[in-house]
Amino acid sequence: MKKLFNNKLFLSSYLADVISNFGDTLYYLALMNYVLFLPDTKFALAMITVSETLPILSGLFMGIWADRTKNKLDTILATLVVRFGLYALVGLLMGFTPALWIVAVVCMVNFLSDLAGQYENGLYMPLSLRVVAAEEREIAMAFKNTVGGILMIVFRSSGAILIGYMSYQHLAFFNAGTFLVSLVIMVGLRPAFAKLLKENPIQEVEQTETEAGLIKGIGQSLKESYQAIQNIPVLKTSILTIAGINTVGSAVPPLVILAMKEFSDFMIVNSGITLALVFNLFSVGYILGSSLGMAFFKHVSLSNLLKFCTGLSVLLFIGFYLHNIYIVMAVILLNTMTAGIINPKLYALIMNELPEDKLATINAGMGTIFNIGMLAGQALVALMVTLLSVTSISLIFLLLSVGLLGYTVIKPKKSSFKFRKKQYEIRLPRL
């Protein structure tokens, strides 16, 4: 950890990311308040939801594009310039009387900004391999998750205060300013990044557009990325398991609300306090897991942690089935703590084992799978709530969780020999 704290390039680049995240969080809160002044608030909220959801479907293509971009360092700076310009435009629009057309433009800006953000993240991944050593990557991710979770609570609290003192136009310009500050920091860091890239150039993706066209080139990228994942069975199993966990876990927020409505004893003091406690547990658990993971669970395997997490999902829906808020809250805390431990290990596995010219593609593809799992769970709950009781929905998700646990326990056994053999084949040339 001391070595990480002495890594000024890592800390400075993370600071640039944190500053832009603060602007995003503040502006999102402001936008949610802005739509309350519109006559058709529901339609405005629908547009915002769509603009936040669509980037989930575009992440994979942004990852492929990032992997195929040659001058990654200067392109990162260009994305920050674009995002600054987009939100400066929003600042100008916010000077007009609140109207639905402004929300429509802002939604388009949010969508384009999210695309630029996905692209930027993909561009930075191979650069980060040169900033943080392999043995430090799990610690680095745990540090970022811990600090990020704490800062998110601070950002939301301070944002709620600033909204009361700043106009929506000023908040939009403030958000644009955070990207400008991030740009200034990254420009200052450019010589250090350029030096690292000169010493260790990034492995470039082979371009195939001239031979077979762009579509075939994208298809080839996907095929090669899939093959890279196939070579690491534990990663393949982890992707499917986490997607399943996201699918069943997405049912928690609506089930909490519905359970409080149907059962008066499914709350602590009142509904407001119960909701605050439940949603804060998600942040607190993740922070605790990220901060304590390296100290106490460094040598626990990713496979065992995923088994434990799926087992907790079973207990979670048992709590819902029994209408016991205390079981639900305890499991939410343990589950999010486990997620906080898993994520740095998964990140280190991806960064250390996969080819760097496929990192953005594979990472974006995984994110798409995880998010689609979450959306599938939300759609399933939305359908069920119109037809079934909370108890019936809980039972269905309990059975899904049992099936997921069975897959997590049985699947590694089937591929364990293959994994050990592949590890041997990888290490043999180094002997």
TrEMBL record:
<feature type="transmembrane region" description="Helical">
    <location>
        <begin position="9"/>
        <end position="31"/>
    </location>
</feature>
<dbReference type="GO" id="GO:0022857">
    <property type="term" value="F:transmembrane transporter activity"/>
</dbReference>
<feature type="transmembrane region" description="Helical">
    <location>
        <begin position="73"/>
        <end position="93"/>
    </location>
</feature>
<feature type="transmembrane region" description="Helical">
    <location>
        <begin position="300"/>
        <end position="320"/>
    </location>
</feature>
<feature type="transmembrane region" description="Helical">
    <location>
        <begin position="172"/>
        <end position="189"/>
    </location>
</feature>
<protein>
    <submittedName>
        <fullName>MFS transporter</fullName>
    </submittedName>
</protein>
<dbReference type="InterPro" id="IPR036259">
    <property type="entry name" value="MFS_trans_sf"/>
</dbReference>
<feature type="transmembrane region" description="Helical">
    <location>
        <begin position="43"/>
        <end position="66"/>
    </location>
</feature>
<dbReference type="Pfam" id="PF07690">
    <property type="entry name" value="MFS_1"/>
</dbReference>
<feature type="transmembrane region" description="Helical">
    <location>
        <begin position="387"/>
        <end position="410"/>
    </location>
</feature>
<dbReference type="InterPro" id="IPR011701">
    <property type="entry name" value="MFS"/>
</dbReference>
<feature type="transmembrane region" description="Helical">
    <location>
        <begin position="147"/>
        <end position="166"/>
    </location>
</feature>
<feature type="transmembrane region" description="Helical">
    <location>
        <begin position="239"/>
        <end position="260"/>
    </location>
</feature>
<feature type="transmembrane region" description="Helical">
    <location>
        <begin position="266"/>
        <end position="288"/>
    </location>
</feature>
<feature type="transmembrane region" description="Helical">
    <location>
        <begin position="359"/>
        <end position="381"/>
    </location>
</feature>
<keyword id="KW-1133">Transmembrane helix</keyword>
<keyword id="KW-0472">Membrane</keyword>
<keyword id="KW-1003">Cell membrane</keyword>
<feature type="transmembrane region" description="Helical">
    <location>
        <begin position="326"/>
        <end position="347"/>
    </location>
</feature>
<keyword id="KW-0812">Transmembrane</keyword>
<dbReference type="GO" id="GO:0005886">
    <property type="term" value="C:plasma membrane"/>
</dbReference>
